[in-house]
Amino acid sequence: MVNARSSTEANAHPLSGYNSALTVVNLLDELDWVVGGYGRPTPQFLYSLNTFVESFVLSDAIFVTFTDAMHLNLAAPLFPEGRPIVDTLVREKMLRVIVEGPEHLQEDIGTVIYIFETASGETLDSDKTWYREYRENVDKGMLRRILPLYPIGKMPAESTALLVLGGAPDHCNHAICIFKRDLRKFISSILGLSQASQFHPALPLYAASIQLEFFKSTTPSVELYHRLAEIYQVKVEDLLRHRGYTVIPIPPLTSILLSRCRARDQLPNELLKLRSEFAELREAGRKHEERLAKASTLGEQFDAIEEFNEFWEVLSKKLDRRSKRLVYRFWDIVKEADPLKWFTTTVDRIIERDQEKFILNRYKSLLDAWNLAKEAPAIQHQLGDIARLFGAPIKQSEWNNYVRFAKEIDREIFPHGRD
Fold it and tell me: Of 153, 187, 221, which marks where a domain is finished?
């Protein structure tokens, strides 16, 4: 059980640390729904699985917001045989809760699905009877409304549903409600946390276009880079070279995972083995982020980036099989009250106000949606393993829709084509 009620618990953390992923509850619900044997696989699931596997293996921890952690507990009745993905994260102490994060609920009052009282003088933490009775008695049909079943052609959706525990009418103590969350605002806020920190976004397919729009909206103009180059006495080409999207080679982690499993219930244990095998990649990401953060000059940051690129180039030559992962780099001015909006202020005014301000190169690792769609024979092996493990193939019509969607996303990222 995820303890989401107290920020003093060990799994509640501020925005700190290196090499961590930031995800949303819909992705975890989607994974547990299929991996737990409750639903059939879809292209959205395969995308989420690849996103999660890469984050699980390459990140030190995975964060969710406080309300998302609450939702994970309240959604338990939908998974009577357990939640293989969330249970693994909790057991391995990888799931962390952001103490204060964005929520963006659309309503002041949600749809009440369960009302209960606690014993006199007892709190929700001390009296767990309510939780056991809730799991046994809540209307499972009502709970199904929280599942993220968004057709690819209707992405991004306007809202998503989640469970929230809160106050109830005067005649009782508590109620569990389904609230709608403004999806665009929430995902943008999640990306804002990621952009201004060391988090790497691990988001479902429905967030892909929102993610691209966000990165595009937070890209400074070339003119500002020229002014920064003058101020910091570096070549503007060096600043421009270390921004935007690039592709790095990684082992085909999801393909390896699926091929090793004889049954779907082996996925969690094989996932842990995979994470152990690739500890070196995780350490490389952590060291790179730490070196960038602690660099005292732009020259040291350039050196760190070159070292990072060389590491992946050497790794690529060692791999018999490889996949691809997107890296999005950008320059951030630290110590700014609103680091996401620094480019809306003139650079001269920023420097004049605080001479100690410094630009920091940050990067975000993302799933390469187009690589997943077109990389044969790897994707054919994944699709075959999905059908074998889950007893049902992904429908061809659904896969064709995904391929078209992924191609559109790739055109947004690389409008002039890939090198």
Answer: 187
